[in-house]
Amino acid sequence: MPIEEEETRRRGAVGGAIVLRSISAVYVLALALWTGGLVVLGAIVAPTVFGMVPAPASADAMTVVFRKFDAVAIACALIVLLAEAGLAWRGAQTTRLDLARGGAAVGAGGLAIVTGTWLSPAIQALHDEGAIRGLGEAGAALEQFHRHAASAAKAELFLLLIVIVFLVTRLTRPESRRRSSYESDRAASV
Description:
This protein is an all-alpha fold. The protein has five helices and no strands. Helices cover 85% and strands 0% of the residues.
């Protein structure tokens, strides 16, 4: 291989590594914001507000908080899914672990979208109509939507933890096991 081609290939590999690191950094930041937000809202904010602020003000306040977080979660989900696509496109050979991570990311993203576009708006509409959990038909519906939203958040958090563990596993693999697809193709043709 001529020296110019080798230098061009080396620069491409360095540029590719920078792109992969950048994608990974954005991916990790979006995961941290999304996962941390779910934990803080579910474990700290909601129990505190519902425990200290009398109804219906507590429900009104938390509805606003959850609706704002829905936008953050959906944005983070889109960033995570784009980063996942970027890693698949520019990264090493795809493994079963990568596929499992991608599947968990798609599942968590789907749950964030369902929560933000269906469950939370339904809960807000019932609150706006004056529904009180457990009282009457509207209250029963509110209770059911609340249970679905809580279950979706727990499943979302579980899937995000899987994504984090599998992403850390991928990013900490030794370089020799993360050869780029160019290097793998080149090695196979020699």
